[in-house]
Structures are given as structure tokens and as C-alpha cells.
Amino acid sequence: MITLVVDRKKRIMRELEKIHPRDLSIGEVAKRTRLSRTTASTYLKVLEAEGKIKISRKVGRATLYKKK
């Protein structure tokens, strides 16, 4: 279970690092990592709480994240 969590977090971080300094929406992260939107959203919140990423902006209902 722990390795699954670490793998998903690494996949998300890898995608955010690839496009840094730009940002990605939850849907874009989900598509690039092949995770469901719900799973991507959960792990983005975890990474934000850990201080590894930040919310860069909100556009309408979309929240965009980027690497710190």
C-alpha cells in the first residue's frame, strides 16, 4: 500500500517537474499520469499539504497546481 502511494506521488511530481514553471489542472494531471481525476485530486491535496506543490491559480472552477 505504501509503495502504491509513493508511486502515485512520484508520477504526479514527475509530470509537474516536466512542465515547470507552468501549471497543470487536476484533469491534466490525471490524463498525464493515467490516474482517475478523483485519485489525482486526492494526491495533489496530499502533496500540497506536504509543501511540495502549490496552487498557482484558480480559473473558474479549475484549480491549477505547480511545483514549488
Low-confidence segments, ≥5 residues, pLDDT <50? none
Overall 3D shape = globular
Averaged pLDDT: 95
| Count of beta strands | 3
Strand order of the largest sheet: 1-3-2
**Rg measurement, Å:** 11 Å
- Briefly, what CATH class? Mainly Alpha
Helix/strand-derived class? alpha+beta
Number of domains: 1
Residue share in β-strands: 15-25%
Give the termini separation: 27 Å
CATH topology: Arc Repressor Mutant, subunit A
Q: Mind describing the biggest β-sheet?
A: 3 strands, antiparallel
Number of helices: 3
CATH architecture annotation: Orthogonal Bundle
Identify the CATH homologous superfamily: Winged helix-like DNA-binding domain superfamily/Winged helix DNA-binding domain
The topology string of helices and strands comes to HEHHEE
Give the % helix: 55-70%
Describe the structure.
This protein is α+β, with helices and mostly antiparallel strands and 68 residues long. It has one domain (10-67): Winged helix-like DNA-binding domain superfamily/Winged helix DNA-binding domain (Arc Repressor Mutant, subunit A). Helices cover 57% and strands 22% of the residues. It contains 3 helices and 3 strands. The protein has a 3-stranded antiparallel beta sheet. A hairpin with a 2-residue loop joins strand 2 and strand 3. The termini are far apart. 22% of the residues are buried.
Topology readout:
Elements: H1 2-19, E1 24-25, H2 26-33, H3 37-49, E2 53-59, E3 62-67
Helix pairs in contact: 1-2, 1-3, 2-3
